[in-house]
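Structure ticket #2291
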Amino acid sequence: MKLKPLGRLLGILLGLAALDTSARELGGPYAGLALGYVAGEDTGHETPVSSDGTYTQATHPAGGLLALSTGYDFKLSQRWLLGLDVEAELRNQVEHSVQKLDGTPTSIARNGFVDPTTFSSNFAFTVGPRLGYLLYDGKTIVSATTGLAVAHVKRAFGCNGPVCTPAVSMTEADWQTGWAAGADIERLVTTQLAVGIAYRHAEFGNQDVNVGALFNPISREHQRYAEDSLRFVVRYWF
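Resolution: structure written out below.
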């Protein structure tokens, strides 16, 4: 009995997919919704005023995302479109790690001395062009996107152990900018509604974090962040 609602939903989806969408004219304003997963990598190294070695760190934050988009598609021909897309994302990325000293975790290299690090991101947005092509089946749209990407990131660095009593820590939040590029494939299920999947890669470049409050006035953490995401997309043209 519990399978009946799922069967009805499957029947509805199959019915929508069978509708005649050949009359769809590309172009016009649209709104979109996406659910997906994002995985990133934040790597860096520290330049303290000391000669005891090289400190490095790497975190791999991952989590779910919810994105809302809007834009406008300009019809270039019967099958080609060029659009401007704006997308805002809510995400729940967070990851904890430990700095390494010359490749060895500080908790081992320094006999219990630990440099914990944390990376988190809860919001990002992208804006840029979208080039699409309607395949000859009249129902499938493939597109490529690129443009400006901005993410709100938060990094925390700490020190605890024999030489840091009491433990100390600091957090810096900032907007980090870069670029994003990706590809989508969508299937028209009505003349105005499409569903599909999308992949995005984003590079946010380098960011220097001043950790002088923990160590000395000119200590810096040189960080570099990039991410990949996969999402299920629903798009509606007005």
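Closing remark: Residues 4-17 form the longest helix (14 residues).
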